[in-house]
Amino acid sequence: MKENSLLQAYQEQPNVWDEMFHQNQIRPEYRNFVSAIEDLPAAELTRKDELAKKLFMSQGITFTVYSSGEGIEKIFPFDVIPRIIQHQEWLHIEAGIKQRLRALNIFLKDIYHQQFIIKDGLIPARLIYSCPQFLREMMNVDVPYDIYTHIAGVDLIRDADGQFYVLEDNLRTPSGVSYMLENRSITSRIFPDLLPKNNVLPVKDYPDLLFRNLQALGNRHVSDPTVVLLSPGMYNSAYFEHTTLARLMGIELVEGRDLIVHNHYVFMKTTRGLKQVDVIYRRVDDEFLDPLVFRPDSALGVPGIYAAYRKGNVAIINAMGNGVADDKAVYSYVPDMIRYYLGEEPILNSVPTYQMSDPDLRKMVFEKMDQMVIKRTNESGGYGMLIGSSATDEQMADFRTAITDDPRSFIAQPIISLSSTPCYLNGVLQPRRVDLRPYALYGPGGIDIVPGGLTRVALQEGSLVVNSSQGGGSKDTWVLGPESGAASG
Amino acid sequence: MLSRVADTIYWLARYMERTRAMLQVIRIHYHTSQDSPAEFSWRPLLSSYGSRTPDELSSNEGDTTWVLDHLILDRENAASVYNNVLQARENARAAQDHITREVWQCLNDFYHAIRGTEIAQQVRQGDPVSGIDTLMRHSLVFTGAVQSTMPRDEGYGYLALGKLLERALQTTDILRIKWASFGDARQPAPEPHQLRNLLHARFGHELYLKTYRGNFNADSVLQFMLHNPYFTHSLYSCLHQLTWYFERLRPDSLPESYEKLEFMIGRLTNHVRYSTVAAAEPEQLNRFLLETRQELLDITGAFGNYYFGRSY
Q: What is the pTM of this model?
């Protein structure tokens, strides 16, 4: 029961799955946590909120917004109330993501080699070849251990029925994992002892697992491979993450200008001269990676790196050309891929997706535009998106014109109502929509997913857009261990 | 270590050493300005650390509050303490994986402190010395964090080299500028209080008193600043330490780069060590200091070429 005034003031929303409450009762996975905070004095949560902000600021977990010639330090908004996931639910999510990644990885190998899936008529060739992220340069390139999707951040949302749906498979350079790690360390500071008492599974293994996988890819060449993280540089908004990961793995953080290709081998410029690089975890997009092959104006990449990669002299993580598998139009074929490649039924649901290149579907979507989300297939970060329920007639008309002009670049999905969870904002608990991005690591030894992930929050009231570039924030994500799930469930 | 990272770390140390030197000189100058306002001028400091032309200065140079603001907090002044700290932090950010978390955090704190309202209030309206002291304390915390948390690897070596080269340059410059202001016709020998200020400005006053028992004469002060092996800011001491840290870099260097730098550093160290300049001959002293300065700059240039991969 809600006895505490903080909890009493909280209103569940109709037709939305609330992560903490169900018909005014606290869900079992949250009971321990709520009982620990409900007796706190009124000002205590505000103090914790302030402490969290101070910790982020003093540890420099900030990104810089450059405006009017001067940098302003901002922190990625963090909500102190954790998002909690039951053990059983996690096992389901974990199995679902592993299955999906296995299929997507085979798909990438297939698409860049024999293309059985096209020949068997499952996916139209037109869809693949019209995808801007499909790289002809990757045709018949053999990647180490046939792994393309070394690091994936799969976005999941929960609909009103309580089921998880996959919204996007981010297979290129998914970011945010450092916030998963930092959020956890901040939680341990502001809620002393709560993590062990709740039997929360640790996420701290992520850098070790990632490093193990990176190192394994270099073992083809030498016993002690040189692994580096390639960053676009300190003005990139994810630069904090790049330095954190490099530091936690103890590897060199390099920029394009530090690398040079000689005789199809990659070297870095050190104080002792050139040193060969065997494995590159790159956080630079495909199109900027090699100015000789992709965008000639790119100053972030390394001329000649593609040829070195193609020759197998350097391993690049993630593989180039992965964008064809997380294209929003290709997304709707993932359940078919799972059946085709693995002979299994998909464990996780996908959101029904309508290709705008299909005239009948286009007509149907135009008629029900106010119930649809329309997305550009090659954009992310919450850009190029129309949410029908909150769009003006003018915006809808603009999208209709744009879709008619270039139907391949759009898809439509019914509006999924993201689940909501209490957030401590301005001294009261308020419901806000969330998604979940677990990070999966695919190495020669299999797929590992650290129990947790990044829960992103749409901080605007009623908003369904959680992207950080659109005013989103984040929460710590607790996955409970098996015993506590059994005890309280 | 990556050449770019070595360069970044080296400059991080130079900015921080420069910050410390500036704060101390400003503090000493401020005290003097309160003691004997009649014969006092901010002009030498403004021409070293300011961004204004001499004409622009005339109207403001008597306004101590404006001068302090300009030297410490002015964001438009590229040489201000504020911009030094900003640059140091930007460098630290770019080499975050090569400095310890503690070093990064105290630089980050320093940066937030100098942007904060408290320092500005103290410098502009309150007691400027309190503001300067707070900043100085941040600078000392940084030094301590480097000292006690950084592994003694290549990175530490570049931090030390940057710090010592900057320190040697600061000592050379302050000696030269101060001595030039002593030697006019009306006033052939420097006054004891001028010598005191000079020593204070390089943190050497206490040690000088202990060494020379309060006997203030220009020649002793000069020899102390140039040659005293126990005084960490003396020119010889800086170069001696520089040699020591540079030798530690040998295994991490290309042999030809190492030889080049070893020669330059060795020559300058011995040149300073066996120099016989005297306070009575200001022209000879000035020439010596200018030569030393040029050789120090040549060494910094050679690091750029041979270690930091600068081809220009």
A: 0.85
